Amino acid sequence: MFHEAGSNQVLIGGQGALWLLTFTGSAVIQKKIPLKADEKAEKDCKKRATLGEDDCENTIRLIKKLDYRIMVCGTNAGSPKCWFLVNQTLQQDKEGHVVTLSADNIVPPLLSQEAVAVAIEGNLYSAVSGKKGMIQRSYGTKKGIKTEDSWLAKSEFVGAALLPEDDQRKDEIFFFYNDVNESAGLDKEPYRAHLGRVCKVDQGGKPILTDSWSTFLKARLVCGHPNEPMRFHRLRGAFVFRKEEKGEAVLYGVFSSTWGSSAVCSYSMKRVSSLFKTSGFKGFSGSLPNPRPGTCVPPESTHLLPSRTLSFIKEHPELDVVIYPDEERPLYVLQNNDTYTHVVVDQVRDASNVSYDVLYLGTAKGKIHKVLRSKDQTVIIAEISPFKEQEPISSMILDASTSHLFADTKAEVTRLPLADCDPYSENCWKCVLARDPYCGWDMDGRKCSAVSQDESHTGRLLQSLDSTNTTYVCEAAEAKLAQEALKKVSVDPTSYIYLPCPLRSHHAIYTWVKDDKTYPCAMDEQSCTLRFGESTPMDQGVFKCTAKEEGFQEEITAFKVTLNAGRVSEVSLIAVGAGIVFLTITILLL
């Protein structure tokens, strides 16, 4: 999936085609761009008995924008190939032929192999999974270079990201991947997460690494505590999020364990970058050459790198450090029978202009968890099920400029608003207890409304993201609403009346109160009903029904009961609902 920030369109790579989807309100306009496999490649593929039927199609594996063109690469029946899109049309040469490019070093030929890429300044940096993984600068104006065969084992690539520095000559590119050990025993991890890192300015190193990276380094990545047994070793998804306020970058990763649970961990990229610049090297204990192996050297100085530095990189690319998460623990552990597959992050300001990270986590069952990260805890605030079928999330893209999240599976695509406050609009209590930083209770409009992300917003909405401090947030709003909605009832003292209190949550504790005196109520599926009768004599005054849940108390309804001097022909049973007195059996004679 590909999406440009600010646009209402997405490009979806399919089998034999590229789909352009335009979202207009509740409708979606579709445009199909056929990209069939070459006839010769398809015939050759079908002759190979080891390949499946899908491998002999053209499945789109990569969509990236390079300058004014969008590069689209597919498997092309085992002979990878790229096309270029200009203004939503396949680019052609002067003779009218569609422009194509061999993509053997950009995407893998088989569907079972993963590929990732990042486009930077018109150049494509890609990584291809396989028995011998490879990280390379595979297309663009700069020289194409790659990793040495000995640097990567069988690799499973998950993502890639640029880490810019104030001095662009020191920009770093990180690749996130797993080393796969298919022969690992029961007591060993079959997957080990790693970070691979190169310098953007790298042009290779003559004479030892002429066509290879002269700055490649790698290190282990673990989600868990160094001294505790519960660790998560397999990286499933990675997202580098740059905070706008301070320019800090954070790596959010979703991991799985061999026993089937998932976890989310965060890593300060400033700390990660520092470890790459200061840590020792695995299998080496002597003095390091100068300049230090892996240092980002300006292109004009590359030829000055001494042979000792280049030889060292070739033989010892791995650091001896294991990178653990911030605070040396996972942010969140998912204990059910689902697995996180993707993560994207947004930064949102609440009604008090305090910034929070909100994580959107895609699962193997097609669900999306909306997770709030605060200084005290990381907690799921919503589980979204946007798809008809329980297929794994294939990809997610978050557009903060339009406040939308795009997500897809192999069969469905959806666009979701980041600020979806309608489900909480029943009352202030429900809105506040959602603890959604995008939403707050509007006292004047009496609804749950989106918090403006404009820097000038004044924070006039009621909101509390602290689970220990929600008791009095809605007090003013509920008092105002209760006063206006106070139901007045005038009945004979010998009548039996029922006062209903609708249930809004089956987890709350409901209580009827008048003048600090508590009254019992009869519970059913819909109401906590106060029933006057022989055991509960009639009285007059204001009766209030309140509900308490997770330390938060809300007034649900209130009745002002007045006893009049009227006469009745016999004992009455009066049920009060919606402010109207309904008589059963008898008629009041006034």
TrEMBL record:
UniProtKB keywords: Developmental protein, Differentiation, Disulfide bond, Glycoprotein, Membrane, Neurogenesis, Transmembrane, Transmembrane helix
Locations listed in the record: Membrane
Stretches assigned to the Ig-like domain: 479-557
Domain Sema: 1-418
Cellular compartments per GO CC: plasma membrane
UniProt xrefs under Pfam families: PSI (PF01437), Sema (PF01403)
UniProt-listed GO biological process terms: axon guidance; negative chemotaxis; neural crest cell migration; positive regulation of cell migration; semaphorin-plexin signaling pathway
Annotated SMART domains: PSI, Sema
GO molecular-function terms, A-Z: chemorepellent activity; neuropilin binding; semaphorin receptor binding
Family in the record: Belongs to the semaphorin family.
Protein name as catalogued: Semaphorin-1A
